[in-house]
């Protein structure tokens, strides 16, 4: 079996950066080079001040500090890194298509195809090419075609090795992965490549957790894993709406059903709706694939997970508006949290964007505080919606650095991300500063109902009447 000593990863994003940092950390004998065409991003990965890394992820900066410059490198020299590597991970973004056939559903594979063409152009020795990005089932065939037809006699072995890390817990998820999935061709060279990749993970994970499958099962398993996780969130969120009508309590229901070992306790937290770069994108992709095979019922079934998530976000915003007497024009509403979950600076598809947009449609004066998300990111997210002009977005919404000051004369606070620090705020002081009646809308079920009511708040917690 080939011993891998040089690997390259194309794409220095939320997956490429942390994944390669952990491989470098656990495999001192392997030289890892992470490349990206985005010069700014690479500069940020190389920054002296480790608090300025492009990604906030607990535990990441410590690993980067330990390995960067030793066996972990970040660079824009894509061709050179490909040429030198024995194994190349493709970890570029695969967003939902915004144009042409499959617009709004299919995955846009243009970045992946560019990588394949680049690998074919540059390679002079045999390579193992690893799909790390999340891809539609049978993408490996397209990659193989590109490589075989332009690769100048070099042998390319393609593997699928989807990533299952969650943001905010990426380092722990990588170090203590439930499983690693490796799909490859069922040929002697395919088996050898799977074993070579498996050997890398075996540096820190028990062999029993490394699953080998055929390449199509591996590609499809990634989409299905995300669809099942998102389905649980939408399922519990659908019941949260019913709880609010019936005096049942969603947390008690989650606990009651989660005790059944067949159901299990995880991913049963009702919320303002799931966000993140992948759940929606991957389910849309699954829906598109099912439809393209004529499986209408299968497509409709999974699409409902997204319809329920959209409903949850708009239901929350509408509840704020109706509770504030159906008129929020000019009312000061504070949003605590903009990231799609705690412990990340990622805001892609965050529920906060949609809630803010709905409140701004009603001309509320919105003020946002998030401990890790930058002002420019927040405005980019709003501008991307194209609901109104960038000037209007800046007029209706401001971004604050001090979470306490902004509550003076506020009508309401909505909690949209479950940052731990929100639990420790001086809520009595906040209450004293706000206009009365003072409302708190808790989209993350973060605070204690009895405490908040005792302080005097009109407190709404999602999934509880
Ligand atoms: P990202 O947008 O954070 O990073 C992708 C990077 O690839 C960008 O920096 C971009 O500049 C770079 N890139 C694009 N084309 C390139 C090219 N031709 N050459 C060099 N660099 C190029 O994306 P991400 O969140 O890291 O996701 C990457 C993939 O991993 C996606 O398919 C996603 O679905 C999947 N995934 C993401 C997560 C997550 O938590 N974010 C988890 C599991 C899987
Ligand atoms: C998710 C999966 O958990 C990862 O396994 C997968 O690798 C990744 O997508 C991906 O492919 O990108 P991530 O989106 O980073 O990870 O974060 P999650 O912890 O799954 O949370 C997603 C969203 O669901 C968040 O908005 C979160 O707040 C919400 N959520 C999660 C709930 O509302 N309730 C829950 O019980 C759990």
UniProtKB/TrEMBL annotation:
Metabolic or biological pathway, per its Swiss-Prot or TrEMBL entry: Nucleotide-sugar biosynthesis; UDP-alpha-D-glucuronate biosynthesis; UDP-alpha-D-glucuronate from UDP-alpha-D-glucose: step 1/1
Residue span(s) of domain UDP-glucose/GDP-mannose dehydrogenase C-terminal: 334-449
Species whose genome carries this gene: Maribacter chungangensis
Superkingdom as given in the UniProt entry: Bacteria
Signal sequence residues: none
Keyword Transport: no
Keywords linked to the UniProt accession: NAD, Oxidoreductase
Record's protein name: UDP-glucose 6-dehydrogenase
Catalytic activity: UDP-alpha-D-glucose + 2 NAD(+) + H2O = UDP-alpha-D-glucuronate + 2 NADH + 3 H(+)
Top EC class of this enzyme: oxidoreductase
NCBIfam families according to UniProt: NDP-sugDHase (TIGR03026)
A Pfam family of this chain: UDPG_MGDP_dh_N
InterPro entries: 6-PGluconate_DH-like_C_sf (IPR008927), NAD(P)-bd_dom_sf (IPR036291), UDP-Glc/GDP-Man (IPR017476), UDP-Glc/GDP-Man_DH_C (IPR014027), UDP-Glc/GDP-Man_DH_C_sf (IPR036220), UDP-Glc/GDP-Man_DH_dimer (IPR014026), UDP-Glc/GDP-Man_DH_N (IPR001732), UDPglc_DH_euk (IPR028356)
Classification via PANTHER family: UDP-GLUCOSE 6-DEHYDROGENASE, UDP-GLUCOSE DEHYDROGENASE/UDP-MANNAC DEHYDROGENASE
Residue stretches in coiled coil: none
UniProt keyword Cell membrane, yes or no: no
Family: Belongs to the UDP-glucose/GDP-mannose dehydrogenase family.
Record-listed E.C. numbers: 1.1.1.22
